[in-house]
């Protein structure tokens, strides 16, 4: 049962960080739009590649994105560590279902536009499915 608790915890971390990373990506996107309005566009391939790398670098410098991203990656490493001791037929459904539910709930808490009744209804079925997998 300890492994199932770890799987649920990983799913919660993944789901919450998914929503927070989305908020961080929106902040980065706003910064990117400001930067693009002040710079000229070139069509040469090496300029496009440099621009892409520069955008990626700016995304990683946006702490609202990079901090949850690192937490998410840590949860991924933990997930792979528990896979060595747990059956994959249990680990994958439990963590993925928990991730979907946690993403929906945390997105609602963060104020994303969501159909609350559908999200809660779906979350109920996800929790029910995880419970059935565990039992």
From TrEMBL:
Q: Which UniProt keywords apply?
A: Membrane, Transmembrane, Transmembrane helix
Signal sequence region: none
State the protein's name. Transmembrane protein 234 homolog
Places the protein is found = Membrane
Q: Which InterPro entries match?
A: TMEM234
Does the record carry Transmembrane helix as a key word? yes
Report TM segments. 63-83, 90-110, 116-134
Q: Which domain of life is it from?
A: Eukaryota
Q: What are the GO cellular component annotations? A: membrane
| Species | Papaver somniferum
Q: What is its main location?
A: membrane
Instruction: Report how it sits in the membrane.
Output: Multi-pass membrane protein
């Amino acid at each position: 049962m300890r492994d199932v608790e770890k799987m649920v915890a990983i799913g919660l971390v993944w789901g919450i960080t998914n929503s927070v990373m989305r908020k961080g990506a929106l902040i980065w996107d706003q910064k990117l739009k400001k930067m693009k309005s002040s710079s000229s566009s070139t069509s040469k391939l090496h300029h496009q590649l440099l621009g892409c790398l520069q955008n990626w670098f700016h995304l990683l410098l946006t702490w609202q994105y990079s901090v949850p991203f690192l937490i998410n990656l840590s949860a991924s490493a933990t997930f792979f560590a528990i896979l060595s001791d747990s059956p994959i037929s249990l680990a994958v459904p439990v963590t993925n279902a928990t991730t979907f539910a946690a993403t929906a709930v945390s997105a609602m808490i963060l104020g994303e536009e969501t159909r609350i009744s559908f999200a809660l209804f779906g979350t109920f079925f996800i929790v029910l499915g995880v419970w059935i997998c565990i039992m």
